[in-house]
Write a structure and sequence with these properties.
Elements lengths: L90 E2 L1 H10 L5 H17 L4 E2 L1 H30 L1
Parallel strand pairs: 1-2
Helix pairs in contact: 1-2, 1-3, 2-3
Length: about 160
Amino acid sequence: MNNPGTPPGSPPDGSGGAPGAAPPQNWAPPQGAQPAAPPVAAPPAAAPPAAAPGYPPPGAMQPGPAPGYPQQAPQPGYPQPGGAPFTGEPTTNSLAIFGLILAFVAPCAMIGIVLSVVGMVQINNSQGAQKGKGLAIAGIAVGAFMFIVMMVGSALAPILVRM
């Protein structure tokens, strides 16, 4: 019989079945007990994957064409990589035009201001491909003036009606 405090099925020598402890020679497991499985060794550490032959290690790629492919000339009619400056005839920005037109219409003055600002940003980012910066500035100025006139008029309207 086992000593108190030892798990059932452990050897009677008092080792409590500690891992690595060998049972005494005359000890046998109880009837119906499963034999202990042999300890499982940890799998060997996997070696890092070897780089495929002919390829550099990750992060060591050099800019340029892929290895084994010739450098190709740019196709005619397409822009050069790197954003070459625009050399054709610049076009007038449509948002600058519509912003100026809507700036003259009092209820749409704020829309005219927004369109003029967006048009001016597009003109500044176009690298000379668009013109109309003066129209955009005029749309902002006229829209601001019309907005102020509209606000003053709506504030004075109740006073003028009572007179």
